[in-house]
Design a protein that fits this description.
Structural class: mainly beta
Helix content: under 10%
Strand order of the largest sheet: 19-25-24-21-20
Number of strands: 33
Number of helices: 2
Radius of gyration: 22 Å
Distance between the termini: 19 Å
Length: about 400
């Protein structure tokens, strides 16, 4: 049943925004950044017990303002991790791009803004931000990706390294755990739970000022050793080639729903839209993905879930595991490609509808039982006044302790 939450007035509430990052940590929902009247670096926490918002103003350094970033929550350490995102407007973005035949609208909108690959850790107990530094490889800057907290299983075994004097050396870094001891020795002894932040997809910048999809490799940040790793995934090749999708952990699997592919640029061969192509005016912005991909964390094999019924092509939605029915995936809101209804035509260019709300103006929740013999999306019947349909919103699954 839908009902408006009656929040106690305390310390204000977050301003209106889109493409914010969020995660659950204990009984609180953390929300960072987003795009409203420009990019933001505000950090807010919603206390689900006291029913009130609190703006967190930690001392010391803070992450730069950004949108389309991710937050991943580590309950054991009572910390959240911020990664990537799209920043504020660059002052020197108006540069002539030689050899680029008229940058598309999307390029003009995004090339003028910084993109990040940094990782920040917010300690929920000490109420402080810390920027993590890495001496090894790390992923490219990106936006519209997902970052999912995974624990309890070693995802990739690293070979032993050899030091300069020829003796064997451990492959673990000298990262320090929250209580001040070396994470290296604790992991080796099995006393520290393996913990990762797994990053899937995203749009990354290229040297010409455009963007491309970061599909492979799939990156994982070892949170104990503070080291980025490549996951040796196999299987369904297109699983991670998307952005503005969702990734939800159900048991020992990650389920990826929807998203977008990259747009065509001016100067490329233009063809009438097909299928889930998303078009604004005369420019195709890419294809809305209509599949559900699954990554088995034990085997690291991607597969495509065989879903019965019409496929769900959606982007900018939210997803979470049902707090009442474990193993059920909930998909909330989002936008879908409109039908290819022709609006206007001249001698050379055809114009089509752009996009529609996937739920026809009211927010609906679609459920998918991923372990059913024949999984199928179904719209959950909801009583009460449903909120308006949303795009670029956040949604988390949470259940109060009995």
């Amino acid at each position: 049943m839908w009902r408006a939450a009656n929040l106690e007035p305390h310390n204000g509430e977050p301003p209106m925004r889109t493409h914010a990052a969020s995660c659950v940590l204990g009984s609180k929902v953390y929300v960072f950044g987003g795009l409203g009247a420009g990019a933001s670096n505000q950090l807010w926490a919603l206390d689900t017990i006291l029913h009130r918002w609190e703006r967190l103003l930690p001392p010391g350094p803070k992450p730069p303002a950004r949108s389309a970033a991710t937050l991943a929550g580590d309950d054991d350490a009572h910390a959240v991790y911020l990664f990537g995102g799209l920043g504020r407007v660059k002052r020197d973005y108006l540069k002539k791009r030689d050899g680029v035949p008229g940058a598309t609208l999307r390029t003009q909108l995004h090339a003028q803004r910084s993109m990040f690959s940094d990782v920040w850790r917010f300690d929920g107990t000490a109420k402080r931000w810390e920027e993590l530094t890495f001496i090894h490889m790390c992923p490219a800057p990106r936006r519209g990706h997902t970052a999912t907290y995974c624990s309890g299983r070693v995802l990739v075994e690293e070979p032993e390294e050899t030091s300069v004097d020829g003796t064997e050396a451990t492959s673990f870094t000298e990262a320090t755990s929250a209580d001040g001891t070396e994470a290296r020795s604790l992991v080796e002894e099995g006393a520290l739970l393996p913990k990762y932040m797994v990053v899937v997809g995203g749009a990354v910048p290229d040297p010409k000022g455009f963007e491309h999809i970061a599909g492979t490799p799939v990156w994982a940040l070892d949170l104990n050793r503070r080291k980025w790793l490549h996951l040796p995934t196999t299987g369904y090749a297109e699983a991670a080639y998307r952005f503005e999708h969702t990734t939800t952990k159900l048991g020992e699997r990650l389920f990826v729903v929807g998203g977008m592919t990259m747009p065509l640029c001016d100067g490329q061969d233009w063809k009438p839209p097909q299928g889930n192509d998303l078009v604004f005016g005369a420019m195709r912005w890419g294809r809305v993905v209509d599949d559900v991909a699954c990554l088995d964390l034990e085997t690291l094999v991607w597969s495509r879930l065989d879903v019965d019924g019409p496929p769900l092509a959606v982007r900018g939605h939210a997803a979470c595991e049902s707090p009442l029915r474990p193993g059920e995936l909930l998909v909330v809101g989002g936008r879908a490609p409109a039908s290819s209804k022709k609006l206007e035509q001249d001698s050379q260019i055809e114009f089509f509808d752009d996009e529609v709300d996937v739920d026809d103006g009211t927010l609906k929740v679609r459920a998918l039982r991923v372990d059913d013999p024949v999984p199928k999306f179904r719209i959950l019947p909801m009583a009460g006044q449903a909120p308006p349909d949303s795009y670029g919103h956040v949604c988390v699954g949470w259940r109060a302790d009995a």
